Every structure is written in structure tokens, then in C-alpha cells.
Amino acid sequence: MRTACFALTKKAYELAKTFQLSLDSTMTIYVSEKVLTKEQESLEGTRSFVKLSQVVAEAFPIYDGLVFIMATGIVVRTIAPLLESKLKDPAVVVFDERGQHGISLLSGHIGGANVLTQLLCQAVGAAPVITTATDVNKCLAPDALAARLSLRPWPKVRIGTLNSAVLEGQKVTWRIDKTLPHSVFYKRMLEQSGQPAELCITSQLMNIQPEDQQLYAVIVSEANLPELSELPTNVLCLSPRRLIAGVGCRRGTPAAVVMSAIDTACRMIGRDRSFVDVIASTAVKRHEAGILFTADSLARPVRFYENAEMEQNIAKYQLEESSFVKETIGIGNVCEAAAYCCVGERGGRMALRKTKFEKVTVALLWEK
């Protein structure tokens, strides 16, 4: 998860630095220019701003999580014009500057705000404030499970229907298309979460018997989903998100080394390499045998992007650049920029930021 933290005061900035150190992934801190000293302005991962509303508007579409250390009212007024959909908006978390309470404000389940709140609260000993009804009542919501398994809910209107059913103690059945890649993985993960699930052939997924009309169902599939008008009112569908592996490597790196890096990267997010849907890299590497042979071995497409397009995404997502790589091939970030190029306007949530392995860098991105 790519996160940004916003601070208006010196005390808030000190708390932000604690958050920055506590996360496995990189957090960028945005601080009011009135607070930063000249020495602090040069620190890596710290940026100054003049107007909060302007910097938040720029950050809102490019980060997966936004953490604010300030009054909740300021945050609400700042993000209100930017809100689009619970399926697309980033996680938003608010802390008081003394670090006593952390509030999961927006995108608690699908965006991951509840998990981010708990993680940051543990780091500073704060009390998490989570108000989603299913969490308050210690119920496991289908959309929370969808986020955990990187599944895309559809249609959005049924999320509330299924969550309400869970709150009311209604039985929810889980059906997984057995032809779906990794169907057994999803079944095992659901059962570990206390959700019995059955594997069905595609034609049986929507076959709800008359005696089961009042039951609620979650269907996990990616094919043959009906039109909304034909979907029973008690059914929510989940489909797998594409996992993009952005890859950069030194010239002449063997395929075995590239494969090993992708392997390790996937294990770091609780998956294996078979979950990768597409490999993405720079056009400079379009003839790199190690990347091409790896894609062939995985039976996955590989997409190469021109430097000009990748530079646009480096600027858009404010990606960190390596001066050495930039001098060598003309751009300073390959794996993250290529992954963002691959998802295009649909956007993505970073599962693993640029990670260095032997002669290889890998970034993993879930398509939104």
C-alpha cells in the first residue's frame, strides 16, 4: 500500500515520522511549509506544501492510503469534493496530534482503512475508532473478505444488502466457480475465515432453488456474470483482480534469477507466481531474454512501455527514481511505472512497492 501522511503542526510531524518508521512499505510525509526547517525539507520521504486542499487533491488519486494528523472536520471538508466511489477511493485515516485516537474515516473495508488504522494504532499505542457496523458487531463482512482476497465486488449496491444480512444473522452461502484459477485457494482462505464455501460448475452458480430464495449468496467467478437486472437481489458477485508484476533487471540477467525474484515477491504478499496475470517492463528491455523466457514459462503476456509513457506515470504517481537507472536507460523507475502503465486509467493498489532482489527489481500491483 502506498501511503501519504499530512501534518500541519510540529507535533503532528513528529507523529508522522513515527508512522513512517513503523510501516513495512514507504510512507511519504507532507508537512506545512510553516513547520519544516531547511534541513528537514531535504529529508527523503518528506515534502512541504503551502495549501492543504491543493496537495490533497493531487495525492487523492495516486495513493492507496491517506493519513491525516489534524482535526477530523478539516479532513472531511478537504476530501468531500474528491469522493467518487467506495470501490475506488483510497483509505482515509485521521489521528489527533497526540496520537491518542486513530479514526478509520473512509473506505474501511475495500480500501483497507480499518486495517491501516489498527496497524498505525498499534505502532503508537492509540485507541482505534472503527465505526463500520459489521466490525463493531464483530461480524465478518463479505466486502472485507473481498479486500483480503483481492476480489472485486459487483454490483456496488449489493454490498450493503449482504452486509446488512450478515448483521441480522442471516445465513450467507459462498459459491466458487470451480473452473476459476485458484478456486481451491479461495475456498481454503474462506474456510479459514469461518466461511464454508462450495465449488460449483459454472452453470450451477446462479442456480438458486425455490426453497433457497431467501438465502443470501456470494458468488466468486469471473465469467458469465448476468446483467444487473437479471441478478437476484440477494446475490453479490466477486471477481479476481488482475495482479501485475512490474519488472526491471540488469542486462543479461538469466530467466531463473528473474523468476526467483517474482517468486519471492509473490510470497511476500501471500501468493505464488501463478497469481501473476501480466508482466510489465520498459521497452528498453523488450529483447531481454530473462524477462521473455520468464513470461513464456509462466504462460503470461509481457507488456513493454515506452519511456515517455512511463515518465508520465512517474510524474503522476510521484514515484521515487534511481539516478543510476535514469542515467543508464533514460528513466529512473521501471517496475512501478510499468505496472501503472499496464493498468492504465483503471488504476491500481500497490501490493508490493519496488523491491530489490539480485539483479532484479519487482513491484506488484492489484488492478482496481
Word description of this protein:
With 368 residues, this protein is α/β, with parallel strands linked by helices. The chain folds into three domains: 129 residues, Rossmann fold (3-Layer(aba) Sandwich), CATH 3.40.50; 99 residues, no CATH class; 125 residues, Nucleotidyltransferase, domain 5, CATH 3.30.420. The strands form three sheets. The chain has a seven-stranded mixed sheet, with helices on both faces. Helix 2 links the parallel strand 2 and strand 3. Helix 12 packs across helix 14. 40% of the residues are buried. Pfam families: CbiG_C, CbiG_N. It comes from Selenomonas ruminis.
Structural class of the helices, strands and pairings? alpha/beta
**Amount of beta strand:** 25-35%
Mean pLDDT: 93
Strand order of the largest sheet: 3-2-1-4-5-6-7
Low-confidence stretches: none
**CATH-level-2 architecture of the largest domain:** 3-Layer(aba) Sandwich
Overall domain count: 3
Report the helical percentage.
25-40%
Described by the principal axes of the CA atoms, the overall outline is globular
Under CATH at level 1, the class of the largest domain stands as Alpha Beta
The largest sheet is:
7 strands, mixed
Which fold name is given in CATH as the topology of the largest domain?
Answer: Rossmann fold
GO biological process, one term: cobalamin biosynthetic process
InterPro entries: CbiG_hydrolase (IPR052553), CbiG_N (IPR021744), CobE/GbiG_C (IPR002750), CobE/GbiG_C_sf (IPR036518), GbiG_N_sf (IPR038029)
Pfam families: CbiG_C, CbiG_N
Protein name: Cobalamin biosynthesis protein CbiG
